[in-house]
Design brief:
- The strands form two sheets. The protein has a five-stranded parallel sheet with strand order 4-3-5-6-7, with helices on both faces. Strands 1-2 form a two-stranded antiparallel ribbon.
- It has helices at residues 29-33, 37-48, 53-57, 72-79, 85-88, 93-108, 113-124, 129-149, 155-177, 201-212, 227-235, 251-263, 277-281, 298-305, and strands at 7-8, 15-16, 188-193, 216-224, 240-244, 271-275, 293-294.
- 49% of the residues lie in helices and 10% in strands.
- Helix 6 (93-108) packs across helix 8, helix 8 packs antiparallel against helix 9 (155-177) and helix 8 (129-149) runs antiparallel to helix 10.
- By secondary structure, it is an alpha/beta fold.
- The N and C termini lie far apart (46 Å).
Length: 310
Amino acid sequence: MAYKENGENAATGKDVSPPLADNGQPSKAEEKNQLNSQDLSILEHAIRERVSGLVNDLHPDVNGQASSLLSETDLDFRLHPELDAKARQLPAADKAIAFRERFLKSLIDPDPRHHREIIEELLQANIPMQTLAIHLFCPVATQLGTYWCNDETDFMQVAVASTRLNTIVNHATHAGAQLVNPHPSAKRVLLARSHGTKHTLGVTLVRMCFRDMGWIVDGGADMEIGDTLYMRLSSRPYHLLGLSIGQIEETADCKDAIERCRSEPATRDVKIALGGAAVVTRPDEFQNTGADVIARSALEVMHLAEYIPH
C-alpha cells in the first residue's frame, strides 16, 4: 500500500484531510513531514495493524491493482443487508438502519464526544445484538473500507474510526452478554482464529449473533487454533466450529486443523464453518479444505445457524 500524503494530492488535485488523533486534535504535520521513507513505512504498517481486516483487504495493493475487491453484488449486500429478506425481518432493523449514517459520521468526526454519546443511545434503543451486528456494525465497517479504497479518506482517519468502532462493538457485546442467558440444552458453538488473524472484529460480531440467537458460545477472539482448541472440542459436544482465517498463506494450516477434527471420533461430526479476512477476499482458496460452510459475512452465518440440527 503506497503512503498517501496529506494536503493536496498531486495526482488528483483533491484535498485530503490531515490525520486526526483520537483526542480530536490534528496531529503535527510538520513533525510527520520530517520522517524519512523508512519511518513512514513503519508508521503506516503499525497503523494498518489497528485497522479492521475488512478495511485492509478491500484496499488495492501497492502496484495499483485491486487485489481482492468484493463483487458489486456482494458489496451491495454488505452495505445494505436489508436487501436480504430474512435480515429485513430482524427485530428493530429499522432502528439500526436509522443509526447508520450518524454512527458512521461519529466515527470519523474529529470530536470524540460524538462516538461516546452514541454508545449510550444505542444501548437505550434496546436493539438486539444480532440486529446491531447485521444492520449497523457490519455495513459501517464495509463503508470505511470503501472510503479508503475510493481515496475519500486517509489511513490515519480510517485507523481512528476503526479503533472507535472496535471500542463500541466491545462495549455493546459486554452489555448485551448480561442480558442473554442461554438454556443449558441450547446449541453450542466454538469460535477460534488462526495465528495470522490480527483483526478480530468479525469474530466478535459473529459471537454477538450466535449469543443473540440463544446459542452457548465458547471461545472467540482470544482463542487460537491449536492444542487448547482441540482440548476444548474433545471436552464437550459442539454443534458448530467457526474458524476465522486472517491470511491466505494459512490455507494449509486451516486444512490440517479440519483434518484433525475429522479424524477424532468425538469431533468428526461437528459442522465446520470458515470466515475471516482471507475467506472474504479469496473464498475459492478454501473450497477444498473440508469445511462445511465458507461464510463471507455475519449475514451468511445467521442463515447457516438455522440449518444446524440440535
